[in-house]
């Protein structure tokens, strides 16, 4: 049985090698993006093509330009915004992703090397800019993915989420993921999961936690009410509509009938 | 004076500073306190890591995934497990990692399924409507390749190997 399995796997390896060879022998065609939204655009299914960057036999692409090595500051622009990335095509987004990936690898390499050599790493905020650009790029790809799924299947195509309670009794959002085994066969998961939460300690924790949340809310409400009180006390002719719009939680009309908004002065009687 | 000369070595020896340490702990005795990854540890540990099906310390692969499986102690490579990284051709690429602060502002809303429908389907529907090639339920008499796409096929196409899962 195992020897037969080994033979099957070796045969699969041979077929795989033949496939790769046929891919390499295929005539060069422009590369097509594998993004879900781009699958709609070409009317014919293009065969899978492979590309690599230019071969460089050293690792100097992981390091910055030599003239920047001893600088205290490297001037660069800002991160890519979501609006700017939305006007790019899928191919351009793919290229930009790898440009940002190379930049990130270069920056991390330089940071590590500067730490080793006890030197100043110039402009460390570049790492944050590259990270923001990558996050925005993923946001745009996700938008297009969702648009494709909504148009063709009626669903968003993202992983379904479920609200579950963790061991402390707090509600967290669980994103489903794929498993090789069905749940009833997954012995490791069955043994490791704890069905439900409980115990006196959890109940006491939840009581204190909710009390903490309630106290925060109560203090915020009291703070707003006190602020309105002081405004009316110092400025008796304040515009009440502005107060109602700015402090929706406070009952301004009820507050006006109370003595709290009366100031330290004698009201002016008609002379 | 002779007495002083005789006493000098003793005095110097008394003034010498000494240190003391605890006994040296060999690795074999307190194995649990050491991080013994792939090539660390004693010879016996390395042999066990190499031969046992479930080694005492898990093999540290540094985040790299396997491209095959072990069958009866023999490593078999599986072609489907080898990652196929699709890298675009960056020659002539004008995009840079940063955007100049002088760049003009861009206003562009989110790409929605309606935009995708307008880009792909609406032109053909308009032409079919003008030519009278629509059926009573609104579908086309001569559907294009995109119109023949069923939801299952579209989902399969989107969920091919290498697609993003959000």
Compile the SSE list and pairings:
The complex is a heterodimer of chains A (271) and B (166).
Chain A: H1 2-25, H2 82-86, H3 90-116, H4 125-152, E1 161-165, E2 171-175, H5 187-192, H6 200-234, H7 240-246, H8 252-256
Antiparallel strand pairs in A: 1-2
Chain B: H1 2-15, H2 43-51, E1 68-71, E2 74-77, H3 113-120, H4 122-131, H5 151-158
Antiparallel strand pairs in B: 1-2
Task: Describe the model.
The complex is a heterodimer of chains A (271) and B (166). Chain A is mostly helical and 271 residues long. Chain A folds into 3 domains: 60-153; 159-197, no CATH class; 199-270, no CATH class. Chain A has helices at 2-25, 82-86, 90-116, 125-152, 187-192, 200-234, 240-246, 252-256; strands at residues 161-165, 171-175. Chain A has a two-stranded antiparallel sheet. The longest helix of chain A is centred in the last third of the chain and has 35 residues, at 200-234. The model of chain A is unreliable at 21-46 (pLDDT under 50). Chain B has 166 residues and is mainly alpha-helical. Among the domains of chain B are: 43-81, no CATH class; 118-158, no CATH class. Chain B has helices at residues 2-15, 43-51, 113-120, 122-131, 151-158; strands at 68-71, 74-77. Chain B has a two-stranded antiparallel sheet. In chain B, a hairpin with a 2-residue loop joins β1 and β2 (74-77). The longest helix of chain B has 14 residues, at 2-15. The mean pLDDT of chain B is 79. Chains A and B meet through α1, α2, α3 and α4 of A and β2, α3 and α5 of B. Chain B: Pfam families: MRP-L27 (PF09809). Chain B: It is found in: Mitochondrion. Chain B: Belongs to the mitochondrion-specific ribosomal protein mL41 family.
